[in-house]
Amino acid sequence: MLIFNCTEAASKFFSRVHKGETITPVEYKAPSPVIEDDEPDSSTEQWLVHAITVQRKNVLFVMHVKTRYCVILADAKKADVEGVVQRFADRWLNGVMIHAINHDLAQWIDADQMIEHFRSVCYSQQFYRRSHRSAQKHIDEIAWIFKERAAERGCLPPDEMAAMVFDEDMNDTPRSSKGAKDYYWPLEEMIVHWLRQYCALEEAEIQEAKERRKQVRREIEALKHEAWLEEYNRQSSIT
Questions:
Q1: For 100-180, where are the E strands, in sequence order?
Q2: For 184, which DSSP code?
Q3: Are 144 and 54 spatial neighbours (Cβ–Cβ below 8 Å)?
Q4: pLDDT tens-place string over residues 84-121
Q5: Cα separation of 95 and 230, whole Å?
Q6: 26 burial class (0-12, 13-18, 19+ CB within 10 angstroms)?
Q7: Residue 10: which of 120, 88, 113 has the closest Cα?
Q8: Between 81-102 and 111-122, two packed helices, what is the crossing angle to 10 degrees?
Q9: 106 near 96, Cβ under 8 Å?
């Protein structure tokens, strides 16, 4: 099950008025005031949802409470619960899988098993009016950057691919939170979570996958640096 914990702004986004009556999927009585105090359930994914307006369009920030992985949905249609959930699920799945494939992790993924488990989790959703102070701070930071970039470029991300690039950029930013001994990267945390929850890997296999990802990441950074040096030298020879 997907649990969407909605801020006041997100609760308003998901609500509409019909013949004087407010229609909303958001329940105000959550299982507990604190998300982490809910009854543990390995098949439940807890997300915090916040909504803002950028350039007169609705933008949703959906952050995984455990890993701080964030999906940003720009130009979201107000009160379109089904459409938002589908778009969110597609972005989450595609974002994780594209990163996994680009970092040579496909060997650890059983696609059929993974998709079946993912669909079973996303099949049902629950919306609560509930906040999370620490995750909200991280959302506020991302929202500020999003607004700055939109102002610089004069528009929101033009398509889902551009949006996924922004997602990955934000999720590849080191963060800290209460209880964490050191800084962590939400993208890496989500990849580990995904391999554990949706690919049913043993811890030894997860460690192997993590090391392979780090190795490929270093190789990619080395290629980028080499390309930068080549361009720098070319420009220097011209001038």
A1: 125-129
A2: B
A3: no
A4: 999 999 999 999 999 999 999 999 999 999 999 999 99
A5: 30
A6: buried
A7: 88
A8: 150
A9: no
